[in-house]
Design goal:
301 residues; alpha/beta; TIM Barrel; 8-stranded parallel beta barrel; binds succinic acid
Amino acid sequence: MVRIGINLLGLNFENPLLLASGINDKVPEQWIRAHEEGAGGVVTKSIGIEPRDGYDNPTIVELPCGLINAMGLPNPGWRGFLEMVEGYTFDFPLIVSIFGGTPEEFAFLAEKLSDVADAFELNLSCPHAKGYGMEIGQKPENVYEVVKAVKDATDRPVVAKLTPNIDDITKLGLAAEKAGADAVSAINTLKAIAIDVYAKRPVLSNRVGGYSGPGVKPVALRAVYDLAKALDIPVIGIGGITTWEDAVEFLLAGASALQIGTAVSLRGWGVFREISEGLRRYLRDEGFSSVEEIVGLALEE
Ligand code: SIN
């Protein structure tokens, strides 16, 4: 008998696959759909203080091995978010992603949204939003301050989502851990650009965006491997996970859970079930009885 449910952040997930914060998770219907299609949990689109429309189109460009997106953090603001979720109950863990420009803004959001969030993911890593994301999260001291402020503001578990756009991601992970983070998630997208050869200008309205999908998988896997080696808190793996083999690689590299985003855009909602069934088969065929048994096996010397 193989058990693929996990306990992480004090929460029970039916399986280790979560819908990633990104481009398919703005409204409750998408979160519910993800769960119906086999996701063990959901991370929402990042929520800020004020409503934002996001950037003009085009906001996404498809490449042979993934996507570059610059949505511009569109969201209804914390008040609109509370209105949006009113009347819903979710029978899966809901991790609310938040972003702010200062530790105080992050803490304010955590306080306001604690009643509806099972946990928070801190967006310290969006690669293209002025004053937010990686502009803050590239500095370990900022990561420390933000995590600390949020931990002081809420008793919900806190996950710091880290940027790969830095020399050594473990510096950010160690800062998050020192500040009391319950886990880190990695990676957010790689800062990137695509150019239209006929228009002779960048494709995206914001010009620069974040690259995700199969093309970033080896980079993400290495980041997870390094973080899992360096940290005592759990690492949630994100970055190009598209097949069950990808999922197994991330678990072996030390990820305790996984987030899937771009694969939903490129392959459809069915990826959750496809990957969890493949993972279950792999565990059974290899003689394991739970996901936890394979976490970090590839870290052993
Ligand atoms: C966006 O909304 O533009 C993407 C958010 C992110 O990269 O964190």
